[in-house]
Write a structure and sequence with these properties.
The chain is mainly beta. It is about 0% helix and about 30% strand.
Length: about 325
């Protein structure tokens, strides 16, 4: 899930000269020429990420497939099957007929699209869709009708599987879904099962029925895996002026410094003053320090508050 800083409260900064540099981005176009005997790239589908456990009621569970980046791969004739570790048998199966991966190669099945971004197939139930473990998720070339409830574990037409838990003992009855020597994945092996997902790192790596490249990191449904296990959320490291400052120039700007590079989106801040009211501002700078240039000056003897909204700020790092 995206990670965000806490709300910031600060007053207006001292007036100062601000030197702005025009940052230019250059795109390097690299053309790759492939010689393929078949004349086309063959997609290799894998289960790229799963998230079975969240805080409280599990309402943002999902399974992500990835085709290696080929994109627009038909999922006709494929089925996602969920296996219960309590009896090593199936408990849900979902046909993927009529669906395909997106242009970037991703497909997401979820329990509630309202809580899961980039969800392509919203199924029932909305909550507690995917059991916490020890359990398994598998991808077959088959139909849901081939897996009525309590179907025993099978490797017939199996493409990929992940056997996982949340600090659970290994389930020997599910491990045959994996290649020999592959192990159960612990969603609780990073910062915690309620905040992390199981995801392949590097993105899409490992191959079908192999679990050795899974790590635990912030969920990324429908986009490339972060591959930053244990990464912490960005925060506001300092401001100009500091919170509680006084004697601020009426035409001053506000500088907000984050702990790392971030992306800001939409209405990510609000400036409110006790006398002059709400102020809009022009934003410059980034990706770590942002300058807010209010559209109107402030007035004498008022107190102003700047709020930074966590939901509109996300980090972009790989540290």
């Amino acid at each position: 899930m995206p990670r965000h800083p806490n709300r910031l409260n600060t007053e207006k900064p001292h007036n100062r000269d601000i030197f702005r540099k025009q940052n230019k981005s250059y795109m390097l176009l690299i053309t790759l020429l492939f010689m393929l005997l078949s004349g086309q790239v063959v997609a290799q589908l894998v289960i790229n990420e799963t998230d079975a456990d969240q805080t409280g009621t599990d309402a943002a569970e999902f399974v992500e497939l990835f085709d290696g980046g080929v994109g627009n791969t038909s999922l006709d004739g494929h089925v996602i099957v969920l296996f219960n570790g309590s009896d090593d048998a199936s408990y849900l199966a979902f046909d993927l007929d009529g669906f395909s991966t997106n242009a970037n190669g991703y497909f997401v099945l979820c329990g509630d699209a309202a809580n899961t971004v980039n969800c392509d197939l919203d199924v029932s139930p909305n909550t507690n869709l995917i059991q916490n473990g020890a359990d398994a998720v598998a991808l077959f070339t088959a139909n849901a009708a081939d897996f009525p409830n309590d179907t025993a574990v099978t490797t017939t037409n199996l493409i990929d599987a992940i056997v996982y838990g949340t600090n659970d003992s290994d389930d020997a009855g599910l491990l045959p879904l994996l290649n020999a020597g592959q192990t159960q994945v612990n969603e609780g092996g990073g910062a915690g099962s309620t905040t992390d997902s199981n995801q392949r790192c590097a993105n899409g790596s490992g191959g079908g029925r192999n679990t050795n490249t899974y790590i635990q990191a912030i969920p990324t449904p429908g986009v490339a895996n972060l591959c930053t296990a244990g990464d912490t959320a960005p925060s506001v490291s300092s401001t100009t002026p500091p919170s509680g400052g006084s004697g601020i120039a009426l035409d001053a700007n506000i500088t907000i410094n984050f702990s790392e590079d971030v992306v800001v989106a939409g209405a990510w801040f609000a400036i409110n003053c006790t006398t002059s009211g709400t102020h809009s501002a022009t934003v410059t700078g980034g990706p770590q320090s942002y300058i807010l240039d209010p559209a109107a000056d402030f007035v004498m003897s008022e107190t102003c508050t700047v709020d930074v909204f966590a939901a509109q700020v996300t980090d972009v790092d790989a540290d």
